[in-house]
Each structure stands twice: as structure tokens, then as C-alpha cells.
């Protein structure tokens, strides 16, 4: 069994409301064991047999299809192993406890999306936000006062990234781990 993490995009925002109990039930129906939802923002930790890389891609597609059918929305997830999430947490390059700043990690199922987003990083004002590449993720540190109005946040919110990226606060990831 492998401990997995599904990071759902766009849950409990923009009219897509999914109760944690319903989400856990769906994952159990897909064959997941030891299912736990974390916060009400689309985070599911669960056990599954395998999955190797090929099986993980198939599992991701199955989960997205099941979410769409059950809850009636275009579902996109990033699927990781819990070990991988722990590695990402350990690799956070900024001072996560810095007062007045948000520590974020952007995950993606598309390396080209991360590369395109990273291209914007040199033009960011380091007094407000910084973005650096990690191993298959982007680490983003943003002043709370700037938040969703930051240039990087606005870029990451563009429609072309919706199906492949999702962002999590480092503290949420630590709760998942």
C-alpha cells in the first residue's frame, strides 16, 4: 500500500461545494483505504495499492472522472505520494515562519506549466514575493498584504493553468503529512 495525497483544485470556492464526508466516501468507493480529508479545501490522504507512475496517471484520471460525475464540475487534481509531499515540505527554501508572509507550494501535473510560471519570477518584486523552482514544484513566498493581488497570483489564476496546477500553503501540507 502507498500513502497518497490528492490535491483537488477549486473545491469549496467558486460555487463548487463538496462536504469532506462526501469526498471521503467517494475515495472509499474508488477502493481507497484509510481515507482522511484535511481541511475543507480539497485535500485527501489515502492508501492505495501501488501506484507506480503509469498506475498513478490512471488513478488520477479515475479520481477526476469520479469527482466530475458525482459533484458535477470539471475536476482537476494533482496526485502525489505522501513521501513526495514530505520531501517538498523539507525543501521549502524560504523562512516559512517569516512574519507577515505566506509560504506556498505550487504543484502541477504539467512540468511545462511550472516552467511558464517560473519565467515570470525574475520580474517579481522581491519586497512582495519570490518564486523559486523546486523538484517538480514551485516555492512561492508572498507578503500577506499583497496576497491574491500579487502579479504571480494573478498569473497563476489564469485559465490555462487551472487544469494542471494547484497551490497549497505550507502549513496545510504539514497537516497532510
UniProtKB/TrEMBL annotation:
Pfam families: DUF1697. Coiled coil: none annotated. It comes from the Bacteria. This is Pyridoxamine 5-phosphate oxidase. It comes from Microterricola viridarii.
Amino acid at each position: 500500500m502507498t500513502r497518497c495525497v490528492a490535491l483537488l483544485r477549486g473545491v469549496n470556492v467558486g460555487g463548487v461545494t463538496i462536504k469532506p464526508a462526501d469526498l471521503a466516501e467517494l475515495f472509499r468507493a474508488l477502493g481507497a483505504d484509510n481515507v482522511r480529508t484535511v481541511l475543507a479545501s480539497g485535500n485527501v490522504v489515502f492508501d492505495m495499492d501501488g501506484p507506480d507512475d503509469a498506475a498513478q496517471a490512471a488513478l488520477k484520471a479515475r479520481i477526476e472522472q469520479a469527482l466530475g460525475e458525482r459533484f458535477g464540475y470539471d475536476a482537476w487534481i494533482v496526485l502525489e505520494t505522501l513521501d513526495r509531499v514530505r520531501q517538498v515540505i523539507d525543501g521549502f527554501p524560504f523562512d516559512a515562519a517569516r512574519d507577515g508572509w505566506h509560504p506556498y507550494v505550487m504543484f502541477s501535473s504539467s512540468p511545462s506549466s511550472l516552467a511558464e510560471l517560473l519565467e515570470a519570477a525574475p520580474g517579481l518584486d522581491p519586497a512582495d514575493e519570490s518564486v523559486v523552482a523546486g523538484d517538480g514544484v514551485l516555492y512561492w513566498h508572498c507578503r500577506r498584504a499583497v496576497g491574491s493581488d500579487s502579479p504571480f497570483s494573478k498569473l497563476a489564476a489564469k485559465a490555462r493553468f487551472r487544469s494542471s496546477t494547484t497551490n497549497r500553503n505550507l502549513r496545510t501540507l504539514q497537516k497532510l503529512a
